[in-house]
Amino acid sequence: MTTQRRALIVIDAQQEYFDGLLPIQYPARDESITRIQTAIDTAKQTGTSIVLVQHELPAEAPVFASGSATWQNHPEVAAHENIAAKRISKQFSSIFADTDLEAWLREQDIDTITLVGYMTNNCVIASAAAAEPLGFAVEVLSDATGAIDLTNDAGTAPAPQVHQTLMALLHSNWAAVTDTQTWTTTLRTGVPLTKSDLITSATQGRSTR
Question: What is the pTM of this model?
Answer without folding.
Answer: 0.96
